[in-house]
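Good morning C.,

I know you're traveling, so I'll keep this short. The sequence:
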Amino acid sequence: MPEPLDLPRHPGIRVTRIDGRGRGVVAVEPILAGELIEAAPVARLRPGDSPAPVSPLYDFAFAWDEPPFAEAIAFGIVSLVNHAAAPNATLRCDVAEQTIRLLAAHDIVAGEEITIDYGIPLWFEPR
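The tokens, ready to paste straight into the viewer:
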């Protein structure tokens, strides 16, 4: 039997609706700088396998630097984290574990939306 993966998620986060932004992730308890918010498993995509712009998955692809793979779709709450120019979280690709790790860039207070910088030209007007 294969060894199970330990893919932790911080207990102090919730998915909620954010006015003007759709779904988002909010801290419901304090999260300290450097803490792991989530380790999400991914499906790696080769360049020709990227979702088409008309696909509902198009907006959810992450850069993945593991040739021959160029992008990945993350299965978890990390896919619902919104963009901010001054984010409070950051992403780390863990190629060995095939996960994307969402980490607190600084202390996050209860009630604060968790955000990342998408790091690409935006296809929407940021709020």
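Safe travels,
E.
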